[in-house]
């Protein structure tokens, strides 16, 4: 039951659901997620930590940057829940707008985008 409660907690915030939907398009650097959500780096870090604890996302570190991707498709029940979200939110106006904005942002140099988040 603990795993299910972590997942439902993770899905109880709009920004976390938006982040999951963005990751459906592939791996993103944390600075890209920060830019898309328009939130403070510490806030995004907390949101992503909750998603990771729930087993919905995985991370990898490259240099000073952390990259996020959706959980392994074999991971249950995360896979079922991610598929459900994608089916039910694929036509949501906010999600569709995020997809457009993400495509524009991905054309930008990641180095330039991430430069403002270096400390």
Offer a few descriptive terms.
119 residues; mainly alpha; 3-stranded antiparallel sheet; 3 strands; globular
Question: If you had to describe this structure to a student in words, what would you say it looks like?
Answer:
The chain has 119 residues and is mainly α. It has a single domain (2-107), classed as Winged helix-like DNA-binding domain superfamily/Winged helix DNA-binding domain (Arc Repressor Mutant, subunit A), CATH 1.10.10. The chain is 61% helix and 12% strand. A three-stranded antiparallel sheet has the order 1-3-2. The chain is globular and about 40 Å long. It starts with a helix and ends with a helix.
Helix and strand succession? HHEHHEEHHH
As a percent range, the share of strand residues is 5-15%
* Strand elements, count: 3
Main sheet: which strands, in order across? 1-3-2
By CATH, the superfamily comes out as Winged helix-like DNA-binding domain superfamily/Winged helix DNA-binding domain
Compute the average pLDDT. Answer: 90
CATH architecture: Orthogonal Bundle
Overall morphology: globular
Count of DSSP-assigned helices? 7
Low-confidence stretches: none
Estimate nothing, just give the exact number of structural domains.
1
Estimated radius of gyration: 14 Å
Structural class: mainly alpha
CATH class annotation? Mainly Alpha
Here the CATH topology equals Arc Repressor Mutant, subunit A
Which sheet architecture does the biggest sheet show? Answer: 3 strands, antiparallel
Binned, the helix content reads 55-70%
Distance between the termini: 39 Å
